[in-house]
Amino acid sequence: MKRIYLMKRIVLSLLIVLGVFTGATAQKANMDARKLQLALFAISNLYVDSTSETKLVEDAIVGMLDKLDPHSNYMDPEETKEMTEPLQGNFDGIGIQFNMLTDTLYVIQVIPGGPSEKVGLMAGDRIIQVDDTLIAGVKMKTTDIMKKLRGPKGTEVRVKVKRGKSPELMDFKIVRGKIPVYSLDAAYMADKNTGYIKLNRFAASSADEFREALEKLRKQGMKNLILDLQGNGGGYLNIAIELADEFLDKNRLIVYTKGSKQPREEANSTARGQFQEGRLVVLVDESSASASEIVSGAIQDWDRGVIVGRRTFGKGLVQKPIPLPDGSMIRLTVSRYYTPTGRCIQKPYENGKIEEYHHDLIDRYNRGELMSADSIHFPDSMKYNTLVTERTVYGGGGIMPDVFIPVDTTRYTDYHRKLVASGLVNRVSMNYLDRNRNQMMAKYPKFQQYKQDFVVGEDIMEELLKMAGDEKIEFEEEEYNRSKPLIMLQIKALIARDLYDMAQYFQIINDDNPSYQKALQIINNKETYNRLLGR
C-alpha cells in the first residue's frame, strides 16, 4: 500500500516546495491528490493485466509536464545523476577521455594529475579489458563501459591495454579518484595582442577556469579577447552571472527573471571584473543557449563588446529542480530570463507542442535564416535600444549578433557528413597516429612546428576512402573534391589534439572558422570595432 500513496505525497510535497500550499489551495490540492491516488489504486488492483505502479506514476508525471512548456521535464534517478554530473565540476573515476571507434575504446587524453596518468596510461592506448570483462570487439554500449570504469573514490580497477604495435597487453592497476570535469576547451594567443577562450558549458568550475586562463593570457601580452560560446548550451545561472561580471563596470544589470508566481529578481555586476577594459568579441551560433545568451545579451545591451555569428537558440526559461523521494527529479519552469534592456531571451512556443519547438533549427535552415540575415524579420515591437550608445538590437527569442556570419554550405557536403557521422575521419586520424606516434613526437616536439610543417598526405586520404568503401558509403567524387580541404584540416586538427592537447585542436580548426576569422579582423581594427558599437 506504500506505493499507492506516492502520487499524493508527490503532489503535496511539490506544493510545499513551491510555497503555494495555503488555504483554498490546500483543499483543492488534497482533492486533486486524492483523485490521482484513487486512479492509481483502481489501475493497480482492478486492471486486467499486471502493471508497474512505479511506471504508472512516472508516466503520469511525464504526461502532466508534456502539456506545459518544452523545458519542464521529469528525470529518473539515473538521468538525474547523468544530468548533474557534467556541471558539478568533478566525478569519481580513472581520469581519461576516450572515443569508441568501431568496437574499441581509444584513449584520447589522460587528464593531468588523474589516477590514469599516475600509473602511466597514455593517449593512443586501447583498453581491451576492464577487470574480468572484455570490452573490445563485443560492441558494448559506451554507458556500460563508463559504469565499469567509474566507481567510488579509493576503489580499484584493473585494465588491460594494447599500446602501439606491441602484441602484448599491458596490465594497469588504477585506484579511482576525484576527476575534474573541465568546461574550458582552449585558451591561447590568437595573435600578439588577442587572447582566445573557448567555453563549452557553464559548470560549477567555469568562472574559476576562465579567470585562471585570463591571467595566463595576460602574462603572454593579451590586451583584447575573443570569447567563443559557439555550441555552448548553457549551464548554471549563477556562473553565467559571475562570468558576465568579469566584463562589466560596477552596478550594471546583468539579467533579471520573473514569472507569474515569482517576483522579479535582478543580478548586478560588482567591482571585481578582471576584463572591464580591452576590446571584446563574443562568438555565438544557433546552438548557443541559456547561460550563453545571458552573457552575450548583457555584453550587447551594455555595448561592452561585439557579438559575431548567428542568432542564438532562444532558451530563456528558468527551471527549478525539484527532487523527489526516490532520487528522481522534476525540472519545472518557474520564470523567464530578460536581458538588461528588457528583451525576453525565450523564443515563442505553444504549450504541449514540444516536437514543433525542437524542429525550430531545421525551420530556420529551411527559411534561409542560417545563410542570410535578410531572411530574419523582426517587427517594430521587437526593437530595443542598447543602454550606452542606443544602438538597435532585437528581441523575440535569442540574441541576434551585431555581425552575421552565414553557415558555409559549399564544403559541408552530404558525403563529408557521412564520413564524420560514421566516425571514419576520427578513426583514420587515430590509426595514423597509432602507427607513427613515436616518429611524430620526435619530428614535432613543439606544436608550432607541427602546425607549420605537417601536411595530411594522399596516403591518409586514400586510407579514408578505402575505409568508407568498406563501410558501404558510396563515393561521390564531386562532393569529395569540394570537402577534401576541410577533411584534411579536420584530420590535422584531430592528430594535433591526440598528440598535444585540445587547445591545439582549436588552433588548427579555427583557421577555417569564418566567425573566428571575422572576430580577428574586427578586434584588430579599432575604427571598425568602435563603429559596430555605435561609438
UniProtKB/TrEMBL annotation:
Q: Which GO biological process categories is it annotated with? A: proteolysis; signal transduction
Give the keywords, sorted. Hydrolase, Protease, Serine protease
* Source organism, top-level taxon: Bacteria
Q: Which GO terms describe its molecular function?
A: endopeptidase activity; serine-type peptidase activity
Report the Pfam families cross-referenced here.
Answer: CtpB_N-like, PDZ_2, Peptidase_S41
Domain named PDZ: which ranges?
80-165
GO CC terms: outer membrane-bounded periplasmic space
Family per record: Belongs to the peptidase S41A family.
What name has this protein been given in UniProt?
Carboxy-terminal processing protease
Source species: Parabacteroides distasonis (strain ATCC 8503 / DSM 20701 / CIP 104284 / JCM 5825 / NCTC 11152)
